[in-house]
Amino acid sequence: MKIQGSTIEEIVASVRWLISTRVLRPGDRLPVVRQLAIELDVNRNTTAAAYRRLTEARLIVSEGRRGTWIAPPPNAGEQEGLSEHTTLVDWADGNPDPECLPDMNEIASQCVFTHSLYGADTLDVSLRGYATTWFRNDCPPGFDYLVTHGCVDAIERLARAQLLPSDQVAVEDPCYLGTINALRLSGMHTVGVSIDSAGMKPDVLRSALENGARAVLITARAQNPTGASLTHKRAREIAQVLAAYPDVLVIVDDHFALLADTSYQSPIPNSTIRWAVIRSLSKALGPDIRLALLACDIATAEQLRARLAPGMTWVSHFLQTLAGRCLDSVKVEHTLSQAKAHYARRREALMTALSQNGIETPFTVDGLNVWIPLNCDEEHVTNAMARRGWLVRPSTAFDVNKHNQAIRVTISRTQQSQIAQFSNDLDAVIRETGRSGL
Fold first, then answer.
1. CA-CA distance, 182 to 151, in Å (whole number)?
2. Torsion angle, CA of 237/240/241/247, rounded to 10 degrees?
3. H-run or E-run covering 275
4. Which residues of 159-177 are buried (b: 16+ CB within 10 A; e: fewer)?
5. What is the C-alpha to C-alpha distance for residues 71 and 425, in angstroms, rounded to an integer?
6. What is the DSSP letter of 168?
7. DSSP state, residue 412
8. CA-derived radius of gyration, the chain
9. Strand partners for 278
10. Which tens digits make up the pLDDT trace of 39-66?
11. What are residue 408's DSSP bridge partners?
């Protein structure tokens, strides 16, 4: 390997060529900035600027004293969703129950769709009115609203607007698949903060911030995959930690807001300069609605609005009209109320059946999933359950710091007649796994 060049552009082009010809491969170490400057007989600032440009292009990963290496190719990672070709009972997909979603054909027939032209407001009037009421009491003073293509899209936009590639983002550990993938593809480094049923542990969050995290992502309710929800006490403790770091970007993911059993507790102190609260419509109105409402500080709103402007990547006003009609419908409100009760019954039924077999689920409070900690190998349990006809998610899919040992079960489409059998099968598998020493 021989990097060449005497200017920033030449050094960048040389590394790009070495990567494209596979002389340099993912994981290969590069010389440190000072060493490369000596080898090329150029100013250290030149090699530092070349490395910054390569980092921004996500071709290399630079972590200061820990070194610099060729980045892995972009990878969407493991995905949430249906396993279409499985013959197993799929309790792994993370989806809502289609029977609990509004009838969009009926809703569409009630809509009056009008064409929006370039230059129109990116947020539909009815959605703005709904957002005004929805966020009024849950955010720090001084904010504006936007609409994005769901929670993950909002998180990615916020990260790209406010952070630099290689910045550290503190996230819950375990963490939602989509969040891990979005931040990784944006060039960020996720730092896992352990949680319990009340949410992020404040002392672990403080440690992450002390070690340089530039942003923190917190799930308010029904955390995916665990089902944890912030309590009033924990939200106040987190806010006290964040108050010492006013420049840290705080993102609150409240994706389950329309269906949550638990009340919203804000962890954002008034001193935080950059913040956002995201509320998705996907779990309640259907994943394909692809909408989330976002409240954030005025400066952040201006940044995001520039990227959402007509002519770039605004959210379709047809979709917004459909969503607005749903949120204004008494019938849809009744549908959501029934869905909320349905999910709560299924969640409690499974947790009760597991508890009767001595299997505890201490994290789960709300949401579509039940998180089942294990004292044995989760991959072995996952495979053994598959042999008995059940498809579940192992914790490896959600790991940040690689220390979780659990499985996640989606309860949205569970049948009462299946729950006892599942619980008995899981109990048998855990006992067998324990006896084998795995």
1. 11
2. 140
3. strand 275-280
4. bbebbebbbbbbbbbbbbb
5. 42
6. E
7. T
8. 24
9. 253, 294
10. 889 998 999 898 888 887 778 887 766 7
11. 371, 393
State the Cα–Cα distance between residues 264 and 387, nearest whole angstrom: 40
CA 3 to CA 24: how far, in whole Å? 10
Q: Compute the distance between CA of residue 109 and CA of residue 100 in angstroms, rounded to an integer.
A: 19
**CA gap 70, 402 in Å, rounded:** 23
Determine contact, residues 135/328, Cβ cutoff 8 Å.
no
Dihedral angle sign, alpha carbons of residues 147, 148, 149, 152 = negative
Answer whether the bond into residue 225 is a cis peptide, omega within 30°: yes
Spell out the domains of the chain, with CATH numbers in brackets. Answer: 8-70 (1.10.10.10), 89-97+332-436 (3.90.1150.10), 115-326 (3.40.640.10)
- Estimate to the nearest angstrom the gap between the alpha carbon of 59 and the chain centroid: 24
pLDDT, residue 98, reads 95
Query: Is the overall model pTM greater than 0.90, yes or no?
Result: no
Asked whether 138 and 277 are in contact (CB, 8 A), the reply is: yes
Q: Is the peptide bond before 269 cis (omega within 30 degrees of 0)?
A: no
Tokens 């960020």: give the residue.
Answer: 188
Token pair of 92 as six digits? 């792994």
Q: Do 147 and 293 meet the contact criterion of CB atoms below 8 Å apart?
A: yes
Query: What is the distance between the alpha carbons of residues 270 and 206, in angstroms, rounded to a whole number?
Result: 18
- pLDDT tens profile 95-118: 999 999 999 999 999 999 999 888
Q: Which of 76, 158, 26 is nearest to 397 (CA)?
A: 76
- Picking from 53, 34, 52, the residue whose alpha carbon sits closest to that of residue 44 is 34
CA atoms of 216 and 249, how far apart (whole Å) = 6
Residue length, the chain? 438
Helices (H), 115-165: 125-135, 151-162
Take residue 419 and report the two structure tokens written for it.
């729950």
**Alpha-carbon separation of residue 374 from 185, 343, 361, 429 (angstroms):** 30, 24, 10, 11
Dist CA 19 CA 16 (whole Å) = 5
Report the DSSP beta bridge partners of residue 68.
30, 62
Q: Report the run of H or E that residue 320 belongs to, with start and end.
A: helix 317-327
Residue 1: pLDDT above 70? no
Beta bridge partners of 148: 292
